[in-house]
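Supplementary Note 2. Why include the ligand at all?

Several targets in our set were suspected to adopt different conformations when bound, so apo predictions alone were not considered sufficient. For every target with a known small-molecule partner we therefore ran a joint prediction. The input for protoporphyrin IX containing FE is given below.
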Amino acid sequence: MQAVQPSQGKFTIEFPALSAIKPERWLVGIHIILAMIAVVVGGLLGPFQTFRRAPTLTWEIPIFSYYYQALSLHGVLNGLVFTTFFIVGFSYFVTQRSLQRKLASIPLAWVATGMMTVGLLMAGWALLAGEANVLYTFYAPMIAHPLFYLGLTLVVVGSWLAGLNIFLTYIQWKREHVGQAVPLAVYATICNFVMWITCTLGVAVEILFFLLPLSLGWVATTDPQVTRILFWFMGHPLVYFWLIPAYTSWYAMMPKQNGVKIFSDNLGRLAFLMIMLFSIPIGVHHLFADPGVSELAKVMHSLLTFVVAIPSFLTIFNLAATLEQAGKKRGSSGRLGWIAKQQWDNPVMAAQLTGMMIFLVGGITGIMNASFNLNIALHNTSWIPGHFHTTLGGGVFLTYMGILYWLMPILRGRKLFSKEIALAQVYTWFIGIALFGMSMARAGLEGAPRRTDLGAAGVYISPAWGLYLNLAAIGGFILLVSLILLIVNLVGTLWFSKSEPNEPAPIDVAAPSDSLLIFERWGLWLIAIVVLNVVMWGPVLIQGLNFSAGFWSTGFQMR
Amino acid sequence: MAQQPQPKLEIDKYERTYLILAVAMVGIFFAAILAGAFAFNVRPPDAAEFVNPLTLGQTEFTQLGLFDRGNNNYDLYSIAQMWQFNLGPGVPVEAGHQVLDIPLNARVTFHVASRDVNHGLFVQYHNINLQLVPGHVARQSVIFDRPGTFWVVCHEYCGRGHHNMGFMIRVGNA
Ligand code: HEM
Ligand SMILES: [Cu+2]
Ligand SMILES: [Cu+2]
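The joint prediction is reproduced in token form.
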């Protein structure tokens, strides 16, 4: 297996390994900075939520003393804003570098950035003003200020334009490289945006036809079950939207950071393809407890959820085999010696390795959630935030930090402020999330609910939860320390670092010669996506809409 | 331009074995779930009927409370609303919470509907977990086969008083 020499096209640019060129520095930079501001502000609330929920503390959250306003901010800023901005910035970077050309349209990219930023300001204002205490799922018939919905819509539509730009860039590259497979990182990016644009159609319909008119007073009533169906059409692919960039880092960058090749490029492609195809028609696994969805749909979506576990199992093998090669190359001995030979002292690698380890826990707990009757014991308990802080807050977040620690220096043109602080940040996060996640999960099994201000006066706390809620607060404290370390490094790298970057951008500009082109049969895959979703979601939506009943609920302002 | 000859998909022999095992494992997991559902009857709620949340008083939710149907079978009718579960008249309140007494080994079918926004209902340590979506009746049956006092909470955020929405179930007058 050898890399094909990419043919040089008219628009080919040689990117410098250790610095950024103009269409990268600002365009990518702004997304990364806004993402980091979001996660710092949103993240800082997290530890205080755990302190509030711990029976021995029950401290009020500073500044945002209303628990559900804080939680709305935490969910929206971390889950929607941080992720979307980071992913768009990272995807631009990966596409341009891998394809060795500028985006198809830089002006279009700036329009998208403008829309997303204005959207962020609108939704951010509504949240800060207490006009959107509806959590990041904004279930009808709760209503928020219209600007909240408009803001989110702008962020989503901006991200569509970003995806469109990436598709156009790919098409242009393809014209100059007939018969060549696209590099794996770009393949993953395209899969991600195909999936994202498809699934966000659901939430776009939800906002434009249900929530916004209700919030503006143009309609008097709405149908909560239908809005939940539309929301979760997007909701599960959303988690894969977060995950694919992390997988991209593991599959396409980590091998380069270790001087080896990915064990199997083609099975990597298969994993991304399967995620693109199967992550949408499984979203009913978030509606297992809903009264307006049939049991048959629940069983079928549960089954397909298990199918989409297969690419993750593939990933475990592929990555472990790749890391084993890397360890052997460094002279490891014995069956497991390669584990010790990883770059545990390099923050970029340590973040990814710890991220993978914690994601393993997330994956296993995810299979438990998806088991449609086991879910009865887990749905809406603290188990769920326990689970997704090991996936999103653990595997994905740590891997994004692993990306940040090489990407930010390149964009800023200065070395990472402190490697030691970065390492400390990674390991404290790992320990904190492990403790927090485990304690939240256990509290959930004992019946502690999620999304609940357990520190408020008069709330019943079962004695069985107390210990675990307190342990979660200790995890929260460790995470607070980690966040502060992150802030120090961010500020340090932006303004106080002096020397040149030393960690090259780990981007491959060509696929191995045995990469299959069948994975790029987009027409075929689009048809498959449409068919799968019509079959899996059509009946659910029609049952929900039931044109002779429903649409009775009046809106409730959540101030 | 000429197409390059297409390479074939090659899968390492260990990876193939691993894949087969992974698929088999997932298959076994799923079989276990189906067995749990259909042999042991641990099942999520099926789609029940629509109900207008604004006119609940004219439906099966006219009379709320626990009804004895004989043979240890009971029906519980309740309306969820900001921020309490309406369990009908005569439910004692202890330390600020309603306490519903249920005989040991009773099989209780919950029928619950929301009057306003989304709510949720689950009973600590029992196989019942319902999303109460306005516009639909939620139904699920559960057997109370262990004595004790269990907390029932609203598990879906429903506004300012969400954390105060709950009640207790006392089984076998423990
Ligand atoms: C600083 C470390 C963090 C701590 C201590 C923390 C803590 C928490 C807690 C306690 C909850 C649940 C509160 C409740 O259900 O009542 C929560 C919810 C959540 N967290 Fe975090 N979190 C942290 C970081 C993050 C990060 C980095 C992300 C994502 C990138 C994230 C995403 C979320 C989301 C999406 C929710 C769900 C909100 C909802 O249920 O509406 N968190 N967090
Ligand atoms: Cu999901
Ligand atoms: Cu509630």
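Residues 224-257 of chain A form the longest helix (34 residues). The radius of gyration of chain A is 23 Å. Comparable summaries for the other entries are listed in the accompanying table.
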